[in-house]
What we know:
It is a single chain. This protein is an alpha+beta fold. 33% of the residues lie in helices and 26% in strands. The strands form 3 sheets. Strands 8, 11, 12, 13, 14, 15, 16 and 17 form an 8-stranded mixed β-sheet that branches. The radius of gyration is 22 Å and the shape is elongated.
Amino acid sequence: MIRSAKLSDLDALLAIEQRAFDLDRFSRRTFRYLLTKANATTLISQVDGQVRGYVMILFNVGTSLARLYSLAVDPDYQQQRLGHALLEAAEQASLDEGCIAIRLEVRPDNLQAICFYENHGYVKFGIAEDYYEDHAEALRYEKKLAPHPNIDMARVPYYEQTLEFTCGPSALMMAMHALDSNVPFSRELELRLWRESTTIFMTSGHGGCGPYGLALAACHRGFSIELYVSERGVMFIDSVRDPEKKEVMSLVQADFIRELKKLPVAIHYNPLSVEELQAHFEQGAIPVVLISSYRMYNEKAPHWVVVTGFDEKYIYVHDPYIDKGAGRSAVDSMNMPIAKKDFGRMARYGKAGQKAALIVKKTSGN
């Protein structure tokens, strides 16, 4: 029998964890968090009233992507197809949550697990360096759960932001690198782009980056930019209360705009629809889009992502932020599928619903 795990199963889960794994074991505290607070589902296999295995799935709020976080079967009960049943139950639970794909990581030396997942239709798509406790890498696998058309994807290498306020530079760096591989992935460039693009102040911490500053930084590096903003007002100004900070943000944006007007940058004061974003993408551009992080991370902050693909129902994005506190890894932030109908509601920030998108293109010199 397979059923949902309860907190009363904690001791049984810990016992299986100790017997099934030599390294990277979940602690009691981790299990408690995953069972009570995380956006996760844990299913257990119960035989003769005893817990003999479990599978844990994490769900990424705001996206249609699931992650198989752990699957373990008591060694004394292996070869009884309990793992097969748990995996099928995990895939069904993911479908029930509206997910179109499920991802997982596995050690390269765990040949039995690799064979198990490949026999169930999982396909390797990447490697995570220094993933495990002993610094071993992990192989990344994915399985499509629902039939859908072929995805129109761009080759956008992934870069993780290294500071909480550098999502904009990190997203822009991914877009530029996708169009010109000579653009490096480095923390130096990440910070340089931030210095060039920052609004000075934003919310209660360091200034983030607005669309005008990011557009200027990209243009200075030889890229062709079209900028779409929903209004002419100062971006993010409602996120601060201090009048002096508001004045500084206004001065910074005005200066960015004056500099942009000296350059061949088209500024459009109207928002882009998902269909228009897709049209630009299909013409070879890489869109960098402002969203609110509330739907994904329950935090009301402006956030930048880079668009990597489209299909009939979904838009795919690289998110430079990795929510490691929730057990996420880079695999969860790469090519994240978001339903088109939901993306339109995510791609806005603040009470005024400010929208912005940079359309990054090659120039003839790139």
